[in-house]
Structures are given as C-alpha cells and as structure tokens.
Amino acid sequence: MLIVEDDPTVLEVASTYLRSAGFVVTAATDGFTALQLAASSSPDLIVLDRMLPGIDGAEVCRRIRAESAVPIILLTAMSSTDDRIDGLEAGADDYLTKPFSPRELVLRVQSILRRSVNDLTPEASFDLGPFSLDPAARIIRRDGRELALSAREFDLFSFLLKHPRQAFNREQLLRAVWHWEFGDLSTVTVTVRRVREKIEDDPTDPVILVTVWGVGYRLDLEGTT
Amino acid sequence: MLIVEDDPTVLEVASTYLRSAGFVVTAATDGFTALQLAASSSPDLIVLDRMLPGIDGAEVCRRIRAESAVPIILLTAMSSTDDRIDGLEAGADDYLTKPFSPRELVLRVQSILRRSVNDLTPEASFDLGPFSLDPAARIIRRDGRELALSAREFDLFSFLLKHPRQAFNREQLLRAVWHWEFGDLSTVTVTVRRVREKIEDDPTDPVILVTVWGVGYRLDLEGTT
DNA sequence: CTGATTCTTACGAAACGCGGACGGTCGCCG
DNA sequence: CGGCGACCGTCCGCGTTTCGTAAGAATCAG
Predict the structure, then answer these.
(1) In strand D, which positions have an atom below 7 A from any protein CB?
(2) Fewer CB near the last or first residue (10 Å), C or N of chain A?
(3) Beta-carbon contacts of residue A91 (< 8 Å; ≥ 6 apart)
(4) How far is the CA of A219 from the C1' of D15 (A)?
C-alpha cells in the first residue's frame, strides 16, 4: 500500500487509519518518489493525490498505469466533472474528493481490493532466487518442487518473498500477515519456525529466513544463490 | 536537527526548547550556510524561516528538497494563502506561522518525526567510504563483508554513518541512539569500544571512530580512503 | 605531577530466541 | 454422527546473547 500525498496532516491521518486496518503503508510526498516506490516496492494498491508538487498526480497515475495494473485511488480537491474525467482517463480505479473521512478511504480501499481479488486479475507470479511464488494458486515452489505450506505459513512466507532483504519485527509481521493490531508475539516466532522447517536445508541453522537478533526476521538470499 | 533563523531571539528560544526535548540542534542564520549544513551534516529534520537574508527560505527549501527527502518545517511570517501554497510547493512538510509558541514547534517536530519513523518506507541504502549501510535490512558492510553488529552497536554506528565528520558528546549519543533522557554515560563509552572492536583494523588505535578528547566521539573517514 | 578523562576488562542480570509440547478448533472421511 | 488428523495459537524451560554497570588501569592536559 503506497500513499502519495503532500499535505502532512492528510497523510498522517490516512496512513494511521489504513495501518490500523491492517495494511502495510509506505508513503511518498511527491510524484518522483512515488514513481520510484511504485516500481521498487510493488505495492498492492496506491492512494494518489491529484495535486502534487513536481509531477502532477494524474501524470503519475498515467505513468504507473503504463507499467502496471495496480489499483489506484485518486484524491481530488475539487469534484468538477473535468477532474473526474481526467482521473478516469488517467487510469484511476476510483476517486475521492477532499475533504473525505478517513473511514471512507478505508472502506474504498477494502472494496477495491476485494474487487481486484475477485477479479480474474490474478496477482502476478514471480521468481526470487530458487523460489517461485504464484499468489493466485497459492503455491510456492523451491527449485520447481512445490512446498507443502499451510495457509498461515504461505501468508507469512509470501509476504517475505514480496519484501526481501528487509528486516521486520514481530509486531509488523503480526499486522501485515495476521492483520492483528495486538497479540502474542510468540505466534510469529512459532510460525517462522514452522516455515523454516519446510524451506531451509538445515532448519537448525537458517540461511534464508534469518533472525535479526533483538529485532525480528529477514528474508535473505545470499545463502541460496 | 537544523534550525535556520536570522532573528537571534527566535533562534535562541526555539533551539533551547528543542534541545530540552532531547534533540541535537545545529543552527544557521542565512540561507547559504543552511544549504552547506544541510549537505554536510545531513540532519534528520530542518526548521526553516521563510524570510532570510540572502537566499529566500522557500528557495532554500526547494534546493534542499532537490537533493534530499529530509522533513522540512517552514516558519512563515504571514498566514496568507499564497505563502502557504508557496511553502507546500517548495516541498515543505509542515509550516508554522509567526508568532508561534515554542511548545507548538516541539509538538510539530515530534509529530513529523513520529510519522517518518512509523512509516515502513524503507530508508535508502548508501555508501560511505568503505562502508555501506542498508537500514532496511539492518546490515552494515565493510568492503563488502557484512559486519556482525548487535542491535545497539548497529544503531550507534548507523547513526554515526548518517552524521559523519561530526563530533557528538556522550549525552547526545545517549539521546539520539538510546532514546534516553538521562543515564550512565559509560554505557556509551563501552558500546563505542565494542563497535571499534568490530570495525577498526586496530581497535587499540582507532582511526575511524575517533575520540574527541574532552568532548566525545566522531566518525572520521580520512583514515580509510 | 596531578586531576580529569578515557580505556579496558569482567561480571551478572535480563532479554531473547528456540524447541518441545499441549490443547482447542475445524474440516474431512469413514 | 463420530473419530481422526491437520492446523494453529499458547505456554514453559533451556541455552545463548546482549548490555548496563562497576572498578581498576592507562592516557592526556595543564
């Protein structure tokens, strides 16, 4: 989830609400950063302000759309028909006119995501090191062999595959994978262990799903390539 | 934390409040110095007066923004809409109209920083001399080899990597790295020693993490390049 | 030389990660 | 309908790592 918004107040409120709804939120405050993040972090949805310093929001939308089918919600200041048409032409999936209630933003986001899940637009599969992730089929393979992951294990490991080389603490994982706001952190520990059992050559000495002492866990690929 | 303000009274009051809130404060009184300091000391936040002798504040803001994503709070004399829009266009994250209460400034600063900390926006990696810092993965390498730093050691050394060539006393480090308001200063001494053990060629005679006698420590790069 | 400052070492408490195990829930199949 | 097994969250005990603190040695400035 990527939010692009230059007004700090709006950004703060929106990201707080979205986070508490269980999303992992990344933020940008200008079009240029937005394009970079959209390309590098491959978010599953983008909330995009129409008015941006530098590159215009609609233009950002067009450029992202040229390379990806990621759902985009456009935030527009006015509700003029022109703007609306512009937005839809630029390839936005939905739009919201300011001022909007953060609650409503969350609802739209959820609705869009539900729709895009239901859409026959399957998330793209991709390879990473020896692993290949097929989100639609909910299958992860290692060297072509399918891994027998349970539902939770799949969710956790596919999240990490989507965000490799990044250390997460247990709370972040609990929010992003379990969609819990609070809870027993050892749940994460145990699930990590169960995943290791299935993906590591030597679960006793993990080289892929590495523990970052005092912090959390990280998906490393050095040990595999 | 960098404050740019030509009025000595305002500067004095603001920096006093921010310091007592636990920030390490650097000051400049004109735009030119501000640009230099912004580049050399890589502050984590900048408070910038709109009206400055020499280069205009908004212009300074634009130039800093062209090279860095550091949060900027703009201080404006008037509250006219024009100013406000100008400021946001220049890339400021927040603005405050004079006269403002120092208490409010501190609150805004904390709010902005809290936001950028909470964001899962992966901080960008960078190289400095023989070192490379990847904040997201929590990895520091020297000449490509990963250093086995503990959590605290990583926090301390990455702070210094982000602020090289700058001397910090132990209290400042205790606040910036440990987030302690008070505490035993020898904690810093010992952690510095532990870091040296891992990064210096000869920990007995440090050339990177140098002692500044009577003051504290500084990250030097002369010894490495 | 003297006092202040920094370095070094050592210790122990606390934090942390891990494996093992338990029990409740749910879906499947006989 | 009852039993079985997979799944998953929780809990406990153990070994390890970390890290603050203290205390003596070494170093520096004046």
Answers:
(1) 6-12, 17-23, 28-29
(2) C
(3) A61, A62, A64, A65, A72
(4) 25
